[in-house]
Amino acid sequence: MDALRIRSTGKPLEGTVRISGAKNAALPILCATLLSDGASHLRNVPRLRDIETTAALLRFLGRDVRVDAPEVHVAAGAEVRPEAPYELVKQMRASVLVLGPLVARFGRAKVSLPGGCAIGARPVDQHLKGLEALGCSIRLERGYVIAEGPNNGGRLRGAEVMFDVPTVGGTENLMMAAALAKGRSTLVNCAREPEVEELARVLNKMGAEVSGAGTDVIHVTGADRGELSPFEHAIIPDRIEAGTYMVAAAMLEGGNVLVQGAKLSDLEALVMKMRAAGIEVTSEGQDIRVRRFGELRAVNVTTAPHPGFPTDMQAQFLSLMVMARGESVISETIFENRFMHVPELQRMGASVALRGNTAVVQGVRRLYGASVMATDLRASASLVIAGAVADEETEVRRIYHLDRGYERIEQKLLGLGVNVERVRGAES
Ligand code: UD1
Q1: How many CB atoms lie within 10 A of CB 271?
Q2: Which residues are catalytic?
């Protein structure tokens, strides 16, 4: 597997980085193309492994998909096979997002249960409960979810769905299913992430009526026909990719980075914590500038559903707090096993004590290069950020995960003055 080798320059990050389209917006939107038989056209799609996996899944389902990132074209193929196999779902949990569109459009779906993942159990009970409320019959058989519309594959019916926890994927799956259901659905206790709002914009372009996305109550009136219209859409910028470079910029005094195309309004919780730590974060037109002049102050962070502090920024922010003055307490409330970066950062000289879902970080003055690796995307990003400011050489192994979520990461880091290279087929 490939590794990233990073050699210390001793200098802070400086320069400009352009943010790619949001992976977590593109994935549900690609799944939404199943609701239409026409030719849809997505723009600003990042070149990432997860996009390729979704394209492979759509092709397996019978779609004609052309990925030429940042453009993707999807059209109906000759035949539909509403079945997502384990081999594809296990590569990417978000594959479960085909469940809602498939059963709403074709009356039937067979989708592998995703199983656990590196950061926790991640059940899909809320997706299934919601689909049942829309009239689906659901059964679990040999690791697969088999869903059927009312009366052996009939049209779904609008209903009220109350989520027990705000779930991003659950909210998206239900919005897509409700977009082709007969009548009006009300979804309560929804996830409020910007990617949910983005999916609502697309479903509205496709002819459904979705209102309230971005709040915790979403109303969906299904289109009064068997399918929705095709669409053209440019994906919003990736707020987590942006946040990752913003944090990297602040690791050393003197850092000065312009993050192009990132929306400050989608990053408020992170920006507030960065400012509390003494970092200057300002809007420059459509861009965000991050500058660090003096010492970093330790701040506490607790992850929460949007608009709270994103769990997908927890690992990177923890790396930042490793370099702060004083003690910071980082609590993870969304996923139960999301501190895999901690033992690796400790090997680089970080002082972090783990107590259940809380990490207590004592700032240190410097980090030392080491060979490290992580088994999830954001944990890997936090190690790269640490490696960029550590003494001597750091090798971040198994960057398979980084390639799932960060487009051209080494080129972007090189542009900010980091001495980094990809080592192909390194020892893992
Ligand atoms: C999405 C993001 C992921 C991010 C996460 C939380 C995508 C492709 N991925 O993942 O990057 O880390 O949101 O912001 O958009 N839960 C249940 N039952 C369910 C569904 C979820 O108990 O049926 C729980 C999960 O275990 C977790 C919490 O709800 O504790 C939030 O998960 P959810 O928002 O569903 O995450 P994903 O959509 O999988």
Answers
A1: 20
A2: 117
